[in-house]
Each structure stands twice: as C-alpha cells, then as structure tokens.
Design goal:
This protein is mostly helical and 212 residues long. 81% of the residues lie in helices and 4% in strands. Helix 2 crosses helix 3 (64-73), helix 2 packs antiparallel against helix 6 (144-175) and helix 4 packs antiparallel against helix 7 (185-210).
Amino acid sequence: MNSIVLNNTTIDNSVLKSEALNGAELHRKKFGIGNFAIWLLIYLELTEFAFFFIVFLIGQSHYPEIFYEGPTRLNTMAGMLNTLILISGSFFVARAVSAIKQDDRKKTLLFLWLTFFMGAAYCAIKLWEYEWNVASGFDSSTNYFFGVYYYLTFNHFVHVLMGMSVILWVIAGTYLGHYSSKHYSTLESGGLYWHMIDLVWIVIFPLLYVIR
C-alpha cells in the first residue's frame, strides 16, 4: 500500500515526496544558492585563510628583502598551470549544476568527473612543485617566506582534497538519482565549496608568486 494514515487521514506517499521537494525548493528560494550549512562552512574557511594572509603581510612588513626575493625562487609556471586548472574546475562544476537543473544526469556526471580530475591534476602539479622546491634547496626552514609559503599552500592543498571528496560524494548521489531539477541543493552546495577553493587560490597565486 503506497500511503500512510496520520490522524485518521490517508496521505499518499507521492504527495509527501512532492511536498519534500517543494520544501527544498522553498528553502533554496529563501536562502538563495546552496544552503545555510555550506555558507557557514565557507565563511569559517575564508576566515581561516584571512588569518594566514594577515600573517603573510606581517612577515612581509618585517622581512621586505626576503619577501621581495621569495617569488623569484618559486616555479611560476606551476602556479599558473594550477590557476588555470582550478578555474577550469569551477567552470565544469558550474556546468554540472546547470545540467542537473535541466535533468540531464549524463552531462551532470560528465562535468562532475571533469571537476574531480581538475582537482587531481592540481594535486599532482603541487606535489611535483614541492619536490622541485626541495631539489632547488628551498624548504619550510629556508626562511620566513618559505615557511609561510609551505604552510599556506599545504593548507590549501588539503582543502582541494576535501573539495575532491565533496565532488565524489555528489557524484555518488547523482548516480543514485538523488538530484533533479527540483532537488539539487546538495550538489549546488558542493559546487559552492569548490568555488571557494578556487577563489582562495586566486588570492594566493599573485600574493606568493607575483607581487613583490
């Protein structure tokens, strides 16, 4: 029997499902893109990175010569490639959200996987860059600049891994049919988290690799 009895009233399960979807839609309209939990997490993460940026600026004011020379020692090409990779990832995840709004699960999965592979490519390049730095004689104990560089970029590296885990989660949900044009707030929230990771890197790249 595809119904339940509540207070002597029979309610069809399809009606309950429809109401649940409508509730999700109302939540999205009330809070905008994503949901409250993901925005709270994003604000907390951005606050953490803001603290790192303040530490960087304090160090720069105390050791101007070290921070002037530091960017010239880094592999700028690796930084540029990772910038392009993360921007591409943001493009793909935005396309995934657009596809699910049209109930195109095949395209949604394609773009989510492309986003995941962009994260994997970022990690591979970053690990190679760390090895290149060490081979060139620069590690976290070299000076204050490299100490901040490793702390900041490794923290971001961990966030990329977290973002990849989130993308895998929504990929699994998409395969299981949890998302549709009427219910995609979790997938959209995963995309927002990825955009946050991209945004932070866009600040990190010029701060560490370009500005002197």
